[in-house]
Amino acid sequence: MTHYPGPQPTVPMTYPPTPGPPTPRPAIGHPPSAYRPLPPPPRRASRRTALALGVSAVALLLIAGLFTALYVMASGEHDDTAATLADRRAELSGVTEQLTNADRLVDAGTGRNADLDDTRTELAACVEAVRSLLWDDLDDAGQDAALDEMFALCQ
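The chain above was modelled as a monomer; its predicted structure follows.
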Protein backbone atom coordinates (compact mmCIF):
# COMPACT_ATOMS: atom_id res chain seq x y z
CA MET A 1 0.00 0.00 0.00
CA THR A 2 1.32 3.45 -0.87
CA HIS A 3 1.37 6.20 1.60
CA TYR A 4 0.83 9.78 0.72
CA PRO A 5 2.80 12.49 2.40
CA GLY A 6 0.92 14.53 4.86
CA PRO A 7 -1.53 13.83 7.60
CA GLN A 8 -3.65 10.73 7.24
CA PRO A 9 -7.34 10.87 8.17
CA THR A 10 -8.10 9.10 11.34
CA VAL A 11 -11.85 9.10 10.98
CA PRO A 12 -13.25 6.71 8.42
CA MET A 13 -15.20 8.45 5.68
CA THR A 14 -18.93 7.86 5.57
CA TYR A 15 -21.07 7.85 2.46
CA PRO A 16 -24.82 8.28 2.18
CA PRO A 17 -26.67 5.00 2.26
CA THR A 18 -27.64 3.50 -1.11
CA PRO A 19 -31.18 2.31 -1.63
CA GLY A 20 -31.85 -1.37 -2.12
CA PRO A 21 -30.05 -4.44 -0.85
CA PRO A 22 -26.41 -4.01 -0.01
CA THR A 23 -24.05 -5.11 -2.73
CA PRO A 24 -21.37 -7.52 -1.62
CA ARG A 25 -17.89 -6.12 -1.59
CA PRO A 26 -15.33 -8.03 -3.58
CA ALA A 27 -12.69 -9.73 -1.57
CA ILE A 28 -9.22 -8.37 -1.79
CA GLY A 29 -7.39 -9.86 -4.72
CA HIS A 30 -10.49 -10.94 -6.66
CA PRO A 31 -11.72 -9.04 -9.73
CA PRO A 32 -15.05 -7.23 -9.25
CA SER A 33 -16.74 -9.22 -12.04
CA ALA A 34 -16.66 -12.32 -9.91
CA TYR A 35 -19.54 -10.97 -7.82
CA ARG A 36 -21.74 -9.60 -10.59
CA PRO A 37 -25.05 -11.39 -10.87
CA LEU A 38 -25.46 -13.45 -14.03
CA PRO A 39 -28.14 -12.37 -16.51
CA PRO A 40 -31.22 -14.55 -16.54
CA PRO A 41 -31.17 -17.32 -19.14
CA PRO A 42 -32.98 -16.41 -22.38
CA ARG A 43 -36.63 -17.33 -22.48
CA ARG A 44 -37.58 -20.08 -24.83
CA ALA A 45 -40.17 -19.08 -27.43
CA SER A 46 -43.58 -20.41 -26.62
CA ARG A 47 -45.70 -22.40 -29.03
CA ARG A 48 -48.05 -19.47 -29.40
CA THR A 49 -45.30 -17.20 -30.64
CA ALA A 50 -44.10 -19.78 -33.16
CA LEU A 51 -47.67 -20.35 -34.37
CA ALA A 52 -48.32 -16.60 -34.71
CA LEU A 53 -45.08 -16.14 -36.68
CA GLY A 54 -45.96 -19.08 -38.93
CA VAL A 55 -49.47 -17.79 -39.61
CA SER A 56 -48.08 -14.30 -40.31
CA ALA A 57 -45.51 -15.71 -42.74
CA VAL A 58 -48.16 -17.71 -44.61
CA ALA A 59 -50.46 -14.67 -44.77
CA LEU A 60 -47.63 -12.51 -46.13
CA LEU A 61 -46.79 -15.14 -48.76
CA LEU A 62 -50.43 -15.31 -49.84
CA ILE A 63 -50.65 -11.53 -50.07
CA ALA A 64 -47.40 -11.40 -52.07
CA GLY A 65 -48.77 -14.06 -54.44
CA LEU A 66 -52.02 -12.12 -54.85
CA PHE A 67 -50.24 -8.89 -55.67
CA THR A 68 -47.93 -10.71 -58.10
CA ALA A 69 -50.94 -12.15 -59.92
CA LEU A 70 -52.61 -8.73 -60.04
CA TYR A 71 -49.41 -7.17 -61.40
CA VAL A 72 -49.09 -9.80 -64.13
CA MET A 73 -52.73 -9.34 -65.15
CA ALA A 74 -52.40 -5.55 -65.23
CA SER A 75 -49.20 -5.81 -67.25
CA GLY A 76 -50.93 -8.04 -69.80
CA GLU A 77 -53.88 -5.68 -70.05
CA HIS A 78 -51.49 -2.75 -70.49
CA ASP A 79 -49.75 -4.51 -73.39
CA ASP A 80 -53.11 -5.26 -75.04
CA THR A 81 -54.27 -1.68 -74.57
CA ALA A 82 -50.99 -0.32 -75.98
CA ALA A 83 -51.37 -2.52 -79.08
CA THR A 84 -54.99 -1.38 -79.54
CA LEU A 85 -53.91 2.24 -79.15
CA ALA A 86 -51.19 1.82 -81.79
CA ASP A 87 -53.76 0.31 -84.20
CA ARG A 88 -56.20 3.14 -83.59
CA ARG A 89 -53.48 5.75 -84.11
CA ALA A 90 -52.50 4.17 -87.44
CA GLU A 91 -56.16 4.09 -88.47
CA LEU A 92 -56.60 7.68 -87.35
CA SER A 93 -53.59 8.85 -89.35
CA GLY A 94 -55.15 7.31 -92.49
CA VAL A 95 -58.46 9.03 -91.76
CA THR A 96 -56.63 12.29 -91.07
CA GLU A 97 -54.93 12.06 -94.45
CA GLN A 98 -58.27 11.45 -96.16
CA LEU A 99 -59.76 14.41 -94.30
CA THR A 100 -56.87 16.64 -95.40
CA ASN A 101 -57.39 15.61 -99.03
CA ALA A 102 -61.14 16.25 -98.74
CA ASP A 103 -60.47 19.70 -97.24
CA ARG A 104 -58.19 20.52 -100.19
CA LEU A 105 -60.91 19.46 -102.60
CA VAL A 106 -63.51 21.53 -100.74
CA ASP A 107 -61.22 24.58 -100.80
CA ALA A 108 -60.60 24.11 -104.53
CA GLY A 109 -64.35 23.69 -105.15
CA THR A 110 -65.17 26.76 -103.07
CA GLY A 111 -62.67 28.83 -105.07
CA ARG A 112 -64.08 27.52 -108.35
CA ASN A 113 -67.62 28.28 -107.17
CA ALA A 114 -66.60 31.85 -106.27
CA ASP A 115 -65.05 32.30 -109.73
CA LEU A 116 -68.18 30.88 -111.38
CA ASP A 117 -70.42 33.16 -109.30
CA ASP A 118 -68.41 36.20 -110.44
CA THR A 119 -68.63 35.05 -114.06
CA ARG A 120 -72.39 34.40 -113.73
CA THR A 121 -72.91 37.89 -112.30
CA GLU A 122 -70.99 39.47 -115.20
CA LEU A 123 -72.86 37.36 -117.77
CA ALA A 124 -76.22 38.10 -116.17
CA ALA A 125 -75.57 41.83 -116.55
CA CYS A 126 -74.53 41.25 -120.18
CA VAL A 127 -77.63 39.15 -120.92
CA GLU A 128 -79.84 41.81 -119.32
CA ALA A 129 -78.25 44.47 -121.56
CA VAL A 130 -78.82 42.31 -124.68
CA ARG A 131 -82.47 41.73 -123.69
CA SER A 132 -82.95 45.42 -123.19
CA LEU A 133 -81.47 46.13 -126.59
CA LEU A 134 -83.51 43.48 -128.40
CA TRP A 135 -86.90 43.53 -126.72
CA ASP A 136 -87.42 46.96 -125.31
CA ASP A 137 -89.07 49.51 -127.55
CA LEU A 138 -86.27 52.02 -127.72
CA ASP A 139 -85.88 54.99 -129.99
CA ASP A 140 -82.59 55.55 -131.84
CA ALA A 141 -80.94 57.38 -128.93
CA GLY A 142 -82.08 54.68 -126.47
CA GLN A 143 -80.81 51.94 -128.79
CA ASP A 144 -77.42 53.64 -129.07
CA ALA A 145 -77.20 53.95 -125.27
CA ALA A 146 -78.30 50.27 -124.83
CA LEU A 147 -75.75 49.15 -127.45
CA ASP A 148 -72.94 51.06 -125.67
CA GLU A 149 -73.99 49.52 -122.36
CA MET A 150 -74.05 46.04 -123.92
CA PHE A 151 -70.53 46.47 -125.34
CA ALA A 152 -69.27 47.74 -121.99
CA LEU A 153 -70.80 44.86 -120.04
CA CYS A 154 -70.11 42.01 -122.48
CA GLN A 155 -66.41 42.42 -123.16
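The chain has two helices and no strands.
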